Amino acid sequence: MINKLKHTVRDRIVNAVRPMVEGMVKQRLLPMDSRVLDNSFITGKLLPYNTTSTEYIVKVEKDGRASASTPPIPPLEYWEGYADSDEDYLAGGRKDMAAMLSILNQANETPLTLTKVLDLGCAAGRMLRHYPCLTDTTELWGSDINAKYINWCQQNFEDPFYFLTNTTAPHLPFEDNSFDLVYCGSVFTHITDTADAWLMEIRRILRKGGYAYLTIHDEHTLDLMFTKYKDDPLFFYFVEAVRKFYEEQSAEALKDYVYFTIFSDPASQIFYNREYLVKKWSRFATVVSVTPEAHDHQTAILLRKP
Ligand SMILES: C[S@@+](CC[C@H](N)C(=O)[O-])C[C@H]1O[C@@H](n2cnc3c(N)ncnc32)[C@H](O)[C@@H]1O
């Protein structure tokens, strides 16, 4: 009885705040001009430094504390919702990096053997800042479609870090066979139709035997959304968007999917049938391991270029 009452009250609150939440979800996930960003027919999109004018001044954003070993903490609006305090920002990036290194370690690889690295979709270098620089030849690249993040990184990270802005078109300005490791933490979660083309592009720039570490949403992620993360304030917008999508679909529509997606690239949230994806990608590269909850709620797939 009490439970039923609780649910009724909860549903009333959810219904009352839903229009507001929907607006906030869209605003947060699609913060720019949605005529372009929301258009699935357009690829080659980016989040420009200035979204409102073609005349603009790029400001000095260098933090005086920047040094090769300790880049400063970026402004909160560059955190991609990963944390709500400086300590959490650092700890979260360290944890996600440690998870990736541990998975690579199980494949007998370490930062000593993987020295030329690309963090594709690096945001403000949340993970990249923790990659161990163990050799004189280590070269750590970050790229992102958000020019503001890249501008900040270029001003605040020093050697051996390099950064550039790319677009949503599956092309990277790097030579063939030139990287030991390319990783994407929560980036293939925002790429729909061009995901395979992106994987092929990553494969092109990897050397033979090089690794791609990609995190994705799958069925396990969905379970976690409605259990472990359902009341986590950092996941509020995300859980609400998924919940709303789920409520709008029929049980029939949700049966037997290979993937489903909410919103459009680069703000999409794509959820895979894991078995389908692993089978598909194993035709492009060797699937070394699949690790649920490697990146919070996301599953990591480690691939090796044959
Ligand atoms: C959820 S954030 C993850 C950021 C970072 N990887 C981390 O773990 O902190 C997703 C990032 O991917 C970027 N992004 C989305 N699509 C991209 C693409 N096709 N190429 C490069 N970056 C992309 C977004 O701008 C955003 O910074």
TrEMBL record:
Pfam families: Methyltransf_11 (PF08241). InterPro entries: Methyltransf_11, SAM-dependent_MTases_sf. GO terms for molecular function: methyltransferase activity. Residues 118-213 form the Methyltransferase type domain. Keywords: Methyltransferase, Transferase. The keyword Methyltransferase applies. One of its GO terms (biological process) is methylation. This is Class I SAM-dependent methyltransferase. It comes from Rufibacter sediminis.
